[in-house]
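Predict structure. Chain length: 193.
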Amino acid sequence: MRIGYGRVSTRDQNPDAQEDALRDAGCDPVFVDKASGKLASRPELDKALIAAREGDELVITKLDRLGRSLKNLIELAEQLEKRGVNLVVLDQSIDTSTPAGRMFFQILGAIAEFERALIVERTQDGLAAARARGRVGGRKQALKPRQVQLAQEMYDELGDDGKRKHTVQDIADELGVARTTIYRYLEREESRS
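Prediction complete.
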């Protein structure tokens, strides 16, 4: 069975050209997503992947319609390969059931792996250079040591009735931070003592 999948990036784009090309290629059913952005869900792709069985072909018009990034594209291709589903890309004449199609995806995988290795190497070099200059990574502390001490004193202060004199919200407002920040610092102080 040939299963077609198309995607348009925005609601204004029209998927008809992709649908027509997929139907002309003998696809039935055809699934089309209207998804924008890297994190947008693609429910129609999920349906297409569920529908695809061993020996089937998932057909797309262009590579960029399937994966949002090279890494995502390769992961999907590997997932299809494990399940025995071939990937066919009409515009680029790619068919993973052929040796040339499989080689193309292996080359893409090697390029993606090389790219990841370069990113890791550059990140490590940048961190090492920053450490050599005396800088350390991580977020800047929200409270200075004196403010932490003040927060702890306010938290520990009891009123005449024996209850806490200041709420965590009062302390947060006084120091200009979120309540969760106060809780985090109070927990740290508690674990140190």
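Summary: The chain has seven helices and five strands.
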